[in-house]
Amino acid sequence: MNDEQVHELLYQALETEQGGVKIYDAAIRCAKNDDLREEWGKYHEQTMRHVEIVEGLFGVFGLDTSVETPGRRLVRQIGESLIQVMGTALANGDPESAELVAAECVILAESKDHLNWELLGEVGKKAKGEEGKAIRAAVEEVEEQEDEHLYHTTGWARELWIESLGMPSVLPPPEEQKEVKTAIGAERAKNARTDMT
């Protein structure tokens, strides 16, 4: 494995999680739906724990959490941009639109986060010793939560959009009701929505 690139992945993963805490802060301020606000509150707490988990990996790998890399800076800029977009949407005074924008911003952030953990899972399959053991334990704890964050928020965004279009929506979305944790489950939930309206 390319150790330098593994380290870069860890730097980006830490930045993604740290930014994710701030993104959820902003998204919660935009959430009108009580169930969605509660859901994002749960994800916010989990993301704070994910920061701690990645920081723990830094200790095992002997990395400094304050090191800046070009990739890490870009991840931070993307996160800051998402927060700015949510703030602008909220300032426009249309709460329904701000909620939709927030859901889309969370999806964008969680897509990167989901990819990070998928890649860390691949690293964990190959890494040896304490580093491999630590990554496998971290992925085991976090990966299912990341799946939920992405798939459930995607369902929320879809159903909020459908509602805004004046069509029957399913809120909370089927992904939430069926406690989806996999891509296959998300697809099945989405397909089942027509029977739920």
What report would you give on this structure?
- The chain is mainly α and 197 residues long.
- 83% of the residues lie in helices and 0% in strands.
- It contains 7 helices and no strands.
- Helix 2 packs antiparallel against helix 5 and helix 3 packs antiparallel against helix 4.
- The chain is globular.
Write a concise keyword list for the protein shown above.
globular; 197 residues
Give a short overview:
This protein is mainly alpha-helical and 197 residues long. The protein has helices spanning 3-30, 34-61, 70-91, 95-126, 129-164, 174-177, 183-196.
List the helices and strands and how they pair.
Elements: H1 3-30, H2 34-61, H3 70-91, H4 95-126, H5 129-164, H6 174-177, H7 183-196
Q: Poorly predicted ranges (pLDDT <50, ≥5 residues)?
A: none
Instruction: State which percent range the strand residues make up.
Output: under 5%
Largest sheet report = none
**What are the secondary-structure elements, in order, as H or E?**
HHHHHHH
Shape: globular
Total strand count, please? 0
Supply the number of helical segments: 7
**Whole-number mean pLDDT:** 96
The end-to-end distance, rounded to whole angstroms, is: 49 Å
Helix/strand-derived category reads mainly alpha
Gyration radius from CA atoms, angstroms: 18 Å
Q: Report helical residue fraction.
A: over 70%
